From TrEMBL:
UniProt family annotation: Belongs to the AB hydrolase superfamily. Lipase family.
Gene Ontology biological process terms from the UniProt entry: lipid catabolic process
Protein's cellular compartments: Secreted
Protein name from the UniProt record: Lipase domain-containing protein
GO MF assignments: lipase activity; serine hydrolase activity
Organism expressing this protein natively: Rhynchophorus ferrugineus
Domain of life: Eukaryota
UniProt-listed Pfam families: Lipase
Keyword Oxidoreductase annotated: no
Length: 232
């Protein structure tokens, strides 16, 4: 089975090479690869087939619940890992079952604990596990357009997270998904709703801070406009 991911990665690498060598092309540093399940590892494999000197290094890779099958974290040249791009963020929804458990990026987000997703209960275990594994994709898609945002935070242990014992500071929160800060490092946890829209938005303290910031910006703009009108 290993030949298939390698072949796919080489094809994507050829596309990257074409884009970087084209007169109106771009550097690999400007690219963002997104891969789901095996595709997450394929995105990492692409890094093995591009020339960092000629093409640049991949700017970002987002791994959506990287599969546990075929890739067991024993070989960094096959697994998705932080060396594959300038920034690697990983979202876990079926970790330890169909997805890898351990962190594999600069920032790893364990959604609802990382293994079991709300709303995924079914009449068969296979459907339930498949739902957990695939639900990562709509989460990420929503992160692109949501105004609420998936606000994640670090926590000492998974047990602490599940028991609501985490006490993060306001500065500890980061957005998960498309708009994640590339400075994010480590393991984060985030909760979602059971039904769409899944994003819960920021906690009350963050909401109040954002509201104060928005009000301050609004007041400053009003002053600048009034000042400009007086001069006229």
């Amino acid at each position: 089975m290993e030949w298939a991911p390698r072949f796919c990665a080489k094809c994507v690498a050829q596309l990257v090479r074409y884009l970087t060598q084209h007169p109106r092309g771009l550097r690999a540093d400007d690219l963002h690869l997104i891969g789901y399940s095996v595709g997450a590892h394929i995105s990492g494999l692409v890094a093995n087939y591009i020339d960092n000197e000629l093409d640049g290094k991949l700017g970002r890779i987002t791994g959506l619940d990287p599969t546990i099958f075929f890739y067991m974290g024993q070989n960094s040249s096959k697994d998705l890992d932080p060396s594959d791009a300038h920034f690697v963020d990983v979202l876990h929804t079926g970790a330890g079952i169909l997805g890898q458990w351990g962190p594999t990026g600069h920032a790893d987000f364990y959604i609802n604990g990382g293994s079991s997703q709300p709303g995924c209960g079914s009449d068969t275990i296979f459907k339930t596990l498949a739902c957990d594994h695939t639900k990562v994709t709509p989460y990420f898609i929503e992160s692109i357009i949501t105004k609420k945002g998936f606000w994640a935070y670090p926590c000492p242990t998974l047990l602490s997270f599940m028991l609501n014992l985490c006490r993060p500071d306001d500065s500890d929160y980061v957005l998960m998904g498309e708009h994640v800060s590339h400075d994010a490092r480590g393991v984060y946890y985030v909760r979602t709703r059971a039904d769409p829209p899944w994003a819960l938005g920021p906690p009350l303290e963050i909401k109040q801070k954002l509201a104060r910031r928005a009000l301050a910006i609004s007041n400053r703009l009003k002053k600048e406009i009034n000042s400009s009108l007086r001069k006229k």
